[in-house]
Amino acid sequence: MMLPTQQKVHWLSRWFAILVFFMLGVPATTHAADPDLKPGDIIGPNNWQRAKGMVGENLLNRIKSGYSFKIKQSRFVSNPKEYDAATSLYSGSVKLAANGELLNYVAGSPFPEVAPNDPQIALKLIWNFYWRWLGDDYKTGGGTGEGKIIRYAIEKDGSERRADVLHHTIRTRGRVTLNAKPSLPGYEHIDWMQLRADEYPRDTAGTTTLEIRYSDPKREDDLYIYVPSIRRIRRAPPTQRCATIAPSEFNFDDINNFNAKIADFNYRFLGRTKMLGNLAQERVPFERKSGDYLPSKESWEIVEAYGVEISPKDSGYCYPRKAIYFDTRTLEVLWAMTWDGKGNYWKEQFSLRTPVKLADGQETLSVGTAVVTNVQNGRSTLVDAVRVHNQGYQPTLFTLATLQTVMRGGSLR
């Protein structure tokens, strides 16, 4: 039996713990997932509580307002065998420097075994995410029916604006399938390069960006932009990564859910939890009502996920706080959430995945459709972006010469 003084201390301790909990701030999915949720169950406005803690706050509100869907059986798609072989071969030598830099990385997953009580678990998981399998190169949108990214900007009033985008990426390190591997000679100081070009609508057609990510954590990315209206190529400052890619709600660091330099951020492990996602999107594009971004006939599945909170070392960065939840097996992100400088919920992003075939018949996962919603202004962006992998791109494609070719009327196709 507690004495009065002990009871007072006990309650003070509880109230202090609660106060600390709210002062630290917690992502919008901290409530425990429903342990009894199973394939075949229907989630809707009459039982929205069952999805609490398994989806973002905005989607939960849509469920309360009438959105419903079925829970389906999960389907596991493994990484390609070459990636797993590289993990076995090289991961034993990988280490973290005192500043969080990745040392001795060659290819595959850097840290295939991460203990739950490892004090560096968040940083190790983020490096695993950064070097997850994406192919040695890929064309984002190449697996859609039109062979390019199809993007819809959806206004709060339901009006839509379509954009068509070409997007090519090459990994110059961490390569496991195409020659040369595990890195391209002469490009060992670069992690990856990307080319992105607007094809439609007419007012933005021809706008092309070249992005280069350097391995040195202290070296800034190169970002070059060709602007057709002034017929000039400009090198953009690092702050441009925070600029919205108009008219969407994405910025450069939102691509692939979190696309920033790892060393520029701090990380906190949020735990392992069950989330709702879709790793086997049935239709691309999915069926939806005009003016809405939610799939009307897609089912969702229960996915084991890691949660990691991300905060910038630079106080001037656009996202003071972001949280991502990704599949524990493939490390593909299910949910990404951001808050503004006042601690208000800002953006919510979910990404559906779809199985795709590689040239040798192996099956792997690609992004299918990604959706980001700005809950503050009511705008959403929907992107159909199925990839085709291992196209055999040459690094010489990813140069200023290509932007100059576009400037003279050429194309990335």
Structure summary:
Helix content is 14%, strand content 32%. The protein is an alpha+beta fold.
Summarize this structure as a short list of keywords or feature phrases:
single chain, 413 residues, alpha+beta, 17-stranded mixed beta sheet, two-stranded antiparallel sheet, 19 strands, 14% helix, disordered N terminus
Structure explained in plain terms:
This protein has 413 residues and is α+β, with helices and mostly antiparallel strands. It is built from five helices and 19 strands. It has helices at 4-24, 57-64, 81-90, 121-130, 400-407; strands at 42-43, 69-72, 95-96, 102-103, 137-140, 149-154, 160-171, 190-200, 208-214, 222-227, 232-235, 265-277, 300-312, 321-327, 333-339, 345-357, 363-374, 380-384, 387-389. The strands form two sheets. The chain has a 17-stranded mixed beta sheet that branches. A hairpin with a 5-residue loop joins β14 and β15. The longest helix is centred in the first third of the chain and has 21 residues, at 4-24. The N and C termini lie far apart (77 Å). The model is unreliable at 1-27 (pLDDT under 50).
How many β-strand runs? 19
Gyration radius, in Å? 22 Å
N-to-C SSE series? Answer: HEHEHEEHEEEEEEEEEEEEEEEH
Unreliably modeled segments: 1-27
Strand content: 25-35%
The helicity comes to 10-25%
Distance between the termini: 77 Å
Q: Overall mean pLDDT score? A: 92
Please tally the helical runs, counting DSSP H or I stretches of 4 or more residues: 5
Shape: globular
Largest sheet: 17 strands, mixed
